[in-house]
Design a protein that fits this description.
The structure holds two protein chains of two kinds. In chain A, about 50% of the residues lie in helices and about 15% in strands. By secondary structure, chain A is an alpha+beta fold. Chain A has one domain (about 5-105): Glutaredoxin. Chain B is of the alpha+beta class. Chain B has helices at about 5-15, 55-65, 65-70, 85-90, and strands spanning about 20-25, 40-45, 75-80. In chain B, strands 1-2-3 form a three-stranded mixed sheet. Chain B is globular. The chains are: A alpha+beta, B alpha+beta.
Chain lengths: ~110, ~110
């Protein structure tokens, strides 16, 4: 991973309470797994930022190393790595996601 | 018939995680890849090793075991990693995978 990509990713994660690395964007997800996470976040009504890894090969590879996680999408809340689509879905079902989002968006640290 | 990658995924998970239940599904046909591809997989695994482990840790175990496949041709791996109690509570039901939206063509 290049230092530039690592710095860029760190910056995105540190400066956005809910940060999603995905394929495509909120309007036009280009992967079913990314689309599921976008839908879940929208349903919770929280502000979130996305980065389209298809537009940047360095970030696409860099985020895998950054998180030690081999697949996209990847969700960060309050700087904490949450997981990919499967984990977000399960945490949505269990109510854990709502708790994390609430803590992040009200300013408390999760 | 399952391909060589499919078989390798099954073997590696079965050997390392002593699963009570293991399903490896090749879902490549749901995506825009050639027939017979081994690119998109779903794993449903129930293992006593997951007891007390958070989801991220369970997924990391599976990802690490399949690192070779993920560096190679496999670029989508959906994982349901459950404890025995969770599997029983769920009555053995598996979540459905989302439809493809075309992104695999560009990567």
């Amino acid at each position: 991973m290049t230092d530039d990509a690592q710095k860029f990713i760190s910056h995105l994660v540190a400066n956005n309470r809910v940060m999603l690395f995905m394929k495509g964007n909120k309007m036009f997800p280009q992967c079913g797994f990314s689309a599921v996470v976008v839908e879940i976040l929208k349903r919770h009504g929280v502000a979130f930022e996305t980065f389209n890894v298809l537009q940047d090969a360095a970030v696409r590879e860099g985020i895998k190393a950054f998180s030690s996680w081999p697949t996209i999408p990847q969700l960060y809340i309050n700087g904490e790595f949450i997981g990919g689509c499967d984990i977000v879905r399960e945490m949505d079902h269990s109510g854990e996601l709502e708790a994390k989002l609430a803590a992040a968006t009200t300013g408390a640290s999760a | 018939m399952s391909g060589p990658i499919h078989a390798a995924i099954e073997r590696k998970l079965a050997e390392a995680l002593a699963p009570e239940h293991l399903e490896v599904l090749n879902q490549s046909s749901m995506h825009s890849v050639p027939k017979g591809s081994e690119t998109h997989f779903k794993v449903v695994i129930v293992s006593p090793l997951f007891d007390g482990e958070p989801l991220v840790a369970r997924h990391r175990r599976v990802n690490a075991l399949l690192a070779e496949e993920l560096r190679g041709g496999v670029h989508a791996l959906s994982i349901e990693a459950l404890t025995s109690a969770q599997w029983r509570a769920r009555g053995g039901a598996v979540m459905s995978s989302p439809p493809c939206l075309g992104g695999s063509k560009s990567g």
